[in-house]
Design a protein that fits this description.
Low-confidence stretches: none
Number of strands: 21
Strand content: 15-25%
Helix content: 25-40%
Distance between the termini: 41 Å
Strand order of the largest sheet: 2-13-8-15-6-5-3-4
Oligomer: single chain
Mean pLDDT: 89
Largest sheet: 8 strands, antiparallel
Number of helices: 14
Structural class: alpha+beta
Length: 405
């Protein structure tokens, strides 16, 4: 009987690479000069970047894309105008001079996910940390000054667009975007991160630090997180945004540490009595707290970068076959997953995945990410995630719920 191997390469698909977005720079130069310094960069035109999306039917033109969308489309205009309309109304509003802002494209046009897998590898981030948005506008359309809380590459598929850009001196690494709005008294409002800002006043763009760039068909503009920008369509424009978010350090470290500590029974105890001033009641819990802090610090030092990045995900999944219809077979150094109701061929496992799935197949109930990590032994966290994803693809596992970020 022919065997299937977990981890076999998939068919080749059109892919987007970081090199397509930063032409003619080498990756090291782009990373050092632009990415790490938070400096915008406009690439040379790249046919590979264009082909990646032009080969997807939904990106043939704006009408095709809006017909594929299920979520509302946002309208951008001059003087801080913002609004939302249905996708079937979008083309008409674009012709009236509004800029169309379309989000969640990767959900409604799933072909884009396959195109971005190699880019995720190039950037060292999980696939779920990349989303796809699109912009469309007629000549003269303006999107007024604002900043975003994510990192963007905009590939211009058609047309020409002028950008005005300026560094953000007010707040670094914003958690929310900021679109200035006029209040009833004539002032500017909309800023919600005063507590984190270097200056708690409503931020403004410092015009003396502004630069101008003109994007044309096939170019990609790298827009750092929080950078002020305004755009004007110099021709009928259609562009796709590669949006990078992912796990923030504070969140990833806290969640990864929590996942590790959940596996230790002493950390699953309630913190009862620790705030009681009576030494007969609060003394023992406080001493336990001191001991747990020492142990938590030891665990914190053991965390790996992959754990930090992947900690942002949360899911519940289960086997698609009953316990009696799945098993692990071993022979010598070989491991095989046997699920005849899912696939006739035994699924060959390596020496790390085999013991992990041997433990996982014994679970009768649905399980979560933290449960899978607990059973993984010494298996690398990325290997655990990849093994689960491949089993979902084979139909051996299924998601009951999922959340990323």
């Amino acid at each position: 009987m022919e065997e299937r191997t977990l981890g076999s390469p998939s068919d080749l698909l059109p892919v987007l690479r970081l090199s397509h977005l930063i032409s003619p720079l080498a990756t090291a130069e782009f990373w050092r000069t632009y990415w790490l310094t938070g400096t915008p960069f406009l690439s040379e035109p790249c046919q590979d970047a264009l082909a990646c999306f032009r080969n997807i039917k939904a990106f043939a033109d704006v009408r095709e894309l809006t017909s594929a969308l299920k979520s509302d489309v946002t309208l951008f205009g001059p003087r801080q105008f913002r609004g939302t309309i249905r996708p079937d109304q979008a083309f008409e509003f674009m012709n009236q001079g509004f800029t169309l802002y379309m989000v969640g494209v990767e959900r409604d046009v799933p072909e884009t996910k396959a195109a971005l897998r190699s880019l995720a590898d190039d950037l060292g981030i999980p696939e779920w940390a990349i989303s796809v948005e699109a912009f469309a506008a007629v000549k003269g359309s303006i999107s007024s000054f604002h900043y975003d809380h994510d990192v963007n590459f905009q590939i211009l598929l058609h047309g020409m667009k002028r950008w005005w850009l300026a560094p953000n001196q007010h707040i670094r690494n914003p958690i929310f975007p900021y679109h200035p709005r006029r209040a009833s008294d004539g002032g500017v409002t909309g800023f919600v991160e005063e507590a984190f800002a270097r200056d708690p006043l409503v931020p403004t763009c410092r015009l003396e630090q502004m630069c101008e760039m003109t994007a044309e068909e096939g170019t990609s503009l790298f827009l750092p997180r929080g950078h002020w920008h305004e755009t004007e369509a110099m021709d009928r424009c259609f562009g796709v945004n590669i949006v990078l978010k992912g796990t923030k350090w504070y969140d990833g470290i806290a969640r990864a540490l929590s996942l590790r500590l959940q596996a230790l029974e002493e950390f699953r105890a309630y913190a009862h009595g620790v705030m009681n001033a009576d030494p007969d009641i609060g003394g023992t819990p406080r001493a336990e707290f001191d001991s747990l802090k020492v142990r938590a610090a030891e665990v914190l030092r053991e965390l790996t970068p992959a754990e930090i990045v992947l900690a942002g995900q949360s899911f519940t999944m289960r086997w698609t076959a009953r316990a009696q219809d799945r098993s692990i077979r071993t022979g010598g150094d070989s491991w095989y997953l046997i699920m005849p109701l899912v696939t006739e061929e035994p699924i060959e496992l390596d020496e790390h995945t085999g013991p992990f799935l041997a433990a996982l197949t014994r679970l009768n109930s649905a399980f979560r990410w933290e449960h899978a990590l607990r059973l993984a032994g010494g298996m690398d966290v990325v290997g655990v995630r990849n093994a689960l994803e491949e089993l979902v693809g084979l139909g051996a596992l299924e998601y009951l719920s999922t959340r990323s970020g």
